[in-house]
Amino acid sequence: MRPRDDFLLAIGRAARHKDPGMSPTPAESHKVFGTMPDGREVKIFTLTNGHGLKARVMEYGAILVSMETPDAAGQLADLTHGYDTLEGWLANTFYFGATIGRFGNRIKDGKFTLDGKTHSLANNNEPGGIPCALHGGLRGFDKVLWAGAPTAANGVAFRYVSADGEEGYPGKLTVTVTYTLTEANELIWEASATTDAPTLVNLVHHTYWNLSGDPTTSTNDHELMLAAPAFLPTDAGLIPTGVIAPVAGTPLDFTLPAVIGARVEADFEPLHFGGGYDHCWVLDAGPGVRLAARVKDPKSGRVLELSTDQPAIQFYGANFLDGTSAGKQGVAYGRRSALCLETEGFPDSPNQPAFPSAVLRPGQTYRHVMIHKFSAE
Ligand code: GLA
C-alpha cells in the first residue's frame, strides 16, 4: 500500500472509531476539485459550523480555497484571494491560501550550512535584483499534492512526505497540516513535522485576506494591530541584517491599532525596500499560544484575531500583486488588495546564529499553530 492510502485509511478509521453512531461530519462532504497534470485527482473539502461560517480546503498545496464569514449585518462573504478552478492555482505564483515549506520566507543566496555541510537551494526570487531562496523552492509544499482526510473534530488533516533531498533540503520530512473550524468561529491551522535526518523546517500559511469581502478594494483602509515591539530590518534583497530593531517611532509600529494606509508611503528605508509593508515583526515573547495580530475592516465591521505559538510574523501587504492575475470570478487582484499575516520562525535563520533555530532533528517534532478567530462589530 502506498503511504498516502495508508494515511487515508488510518484517519478514516480514527474518525469512525471516535463515534461510530455519528452521522458524517460536514468535512466528509468532499468533491474532486480538479486533476493534476499527471492525472491524480485533487479533493476539496467543505467545513461549516452552526454560525454559517464556511471554509474550503484542498489537497493541492494544503490550500485554504475560501473562507466565508458574516459581516456586522450577518452578510456572508468570502474573504480570501484565489481561483475558481484548480488550473488557476497550478499556474499561480502568489501562494494564495497555501501551506509553504520546508522553509517559508527567505534564505540568503539560497545557501545554508547544517552540521558542517553546505546545502544549495534554488534561488527562485530576486527582490531588489538580489537572488535568494523563497518559500521552499521551485516546487515547494504549496505546489505538491497532499493526502487529505476528515478528522473527528470538524477538520481535515493533510499529510505530505517530502523526500530526502527534495528542493535541496536534507532528510525525509513527514508533515501533517490540519484545518479545523470550531463553533467559536475559529479556523485553526496546525502543522507538525518529523524528520529522519537533521533538516530545516519553517512552515508558513499564506492566505491573502480582504475582510471587506470585496477583493476589488484596497486593504489600506483596514486597521491593524501587531503584538510586536520589534522588527527585523533587511537589506535591499529583503534578507534580515541580523539586527532586532524596536518599532517605536517608526511606521512599523502597530502596537496600537493603526490604519494600514496611513503610513505605508512614509519615507522610511524598510518601506522602500519592501515596496510597502513586507517585513518580519518579532512578537511579544512568551510561552504558548498568544495573540499576534488583530485586523478590522471598518466598512463591514469584520474582525480577524490571529493567535500563534511562533516567535515572529510577516505582514505582507500584497505589494507584488499587479492586477495581471485573474482570480475568483475573473477579478484581477490589484496591488494592496489583501494582506497576509504569516506567523513563522525568523527569515534566514539558518544563516543567522543569533536567531531562533529552525533546525529539526530526528526524535524532535516541529509544531506550529495559527488560530484565526472571526467576529464582527
Ligand atoms: C511573502 C513575502 C513577499 C512575497 C510573497 C509572495 O509574503 O514576504 O515578499 O514574496 O510572499 O508573493
Folded structure, characterized:
This protein is mostly beta strands. Helix content is 7%, strand content 36%. It is built from three helices and 27 strands. It has helices spanning 3-18, 86-91, 269-274, and strands at 30-35, 41-48, 54-58, 63-70, 76-78, 98-100, 106-108, 111-114, 117-120, 132-134, 147-151, 155-162, 173-181, 186-195, 199-200, 204-206, 223-226, 230-231, 245-246, 258-259, 278-282, 290-296, 302-308, 312-316, 340-344, 359-360, 366-376. The protein starts with a helix and ends with a strand. The model is unreliable at 1-24 (pLDDT under 50). Alpha-D-galactopyranose is lined by residues 94-95, 134, 278, 314, 316, 320, 340, 342.
Concise summary:
It is built from three helices and 27 strands.
Describe the sheet with the most strands: 9 strands, antiparallel
Gyration radius (Cα, Å) is: 20 Å
Low-pLDDT residue spans: 1-24
Number of helical segments with 4 or more residues: 3
Widest sheet: strand ordering: 11-12-13-14-27-23-22-17-20
Number of strands: 27
Share of helical residues:
under 10%
